Amino acid sequence: MQTKDSNPPDGGYGWIVVVSAFMVMGFTVAVLKTFGLFFVEIQEHFDELASSTSWITSVTIVVFHLGAPVASSLCVQYTHRTVVITGGLLVFSGMALGFFGLSMVWMYATTGFLQGLGISFSWTPAISIVSHYFSKKRALANAIASAGECAFAFMFGPFFQWLISQYGWKGALLIIGGIQLNICVCGVLMRPLPSSCLLKARHCETETPPGNGASRRDKEDKSPIMHKTFNWVLVRQPEFVLYAIFGILAAMSFFVPPLFLVPLSYSLGIDESWTSSLLSILAMVDFGGRLLCGWYANLHVTKTIHLLAMTITLMSTSLMLLPLANNYLSLAIFTGFYGFFFGTTVAIHITVLADVVGMPEFDSALGLFMLIRSTGGFVGPPLAGLIVDIAGDYRAGFYMAGATLALSTGFLIFLDRLQQRKERGSKIKTKPEKSTLPYPSLHILKHQ
Which ranges of 147-255 would DSSP assign to H, the alpha helix? Predict the structure, then answer.
């Protein structure tokens, strides 16, 4: 029997860790989501096409994903705290060097590569340590932590617009980089979890309600020893492969709307002051969607994978309808629908990953999942930019994002059916064999 001290806290100092992760999400992903405010400024400064300028965001996204496996390994070898602090320094370096704006290639290397690596080294350990500190309340804790990006994006939209108008896009990058140094402070607050809790966290999944598919994971937990290297065997598991394909398709779409929302509003003749408010609306409803979905998922009424499939479908629908907007009011309404369903999706997609692979493999699976998903983040924005250049209309990018998300839903459905089939097979195998002999003693003699 496990002692009380060996249980994951599911509260206590864990909430300090959640708040720290909340701040990290704001200083990293929120900045990335509002980078569309710099899109037109940088495009006009270097006189480049939309497809060329979008590569800055694309490089950031792909390095963010590619760095996740490295960040996960470093978390095991050192601590989550050390990796987060390193990430904060890298993010600052990328934005500060971007201030010089020497060329488009320079922007790829600084605000693209360095910032992306810093985000990866900050985001990955922050979301990972939250999952270790919580078990029964994991969905809610992850939702609160991830909500940091939309809470900060709500403020960053008008704030960044003001910085650009006052100091130019170069000066704004330098100031933002200084603000991002606060990631290091957040990292200091991420106290390593006692090893006894880490071991228990890898076994406590059997206590999770069966609605999240936890019952099948206890047999996967063969060793309490933490993985020091990546478990590449995961790519042989059909469940993980299906979820990774879903991640690729979803990543192709996730960063397209924030990137082209501002240029689309400009093309509709909407004033700059109103345009920045769209990002604030997006962040506000995103925040509400995450908290609401995290609360609902914590009730364990619906399987998280079913909930995720539903939110992805609704988000795809809202993206396909968004290009129908022809003025600020209609654009704000459709943006609100998209932002809300985006928030519900992000709130639970990491929780679903933990359900698919189990906590014993979570750290390794998270890094590997981000690595595989990077292909979608790398291809998505440039592909959307190319489609926009060909069509001559920013609406085309939203149609592309919506269609890709709709396709990703199919892989979630396949994954769910595969899990259900395996669960049914497991129940049949574990069902006790009924004896046809009148006496138990005769049944024993028969098998002897």
Answer: 148-180, 182-188, 195-201, 238-254
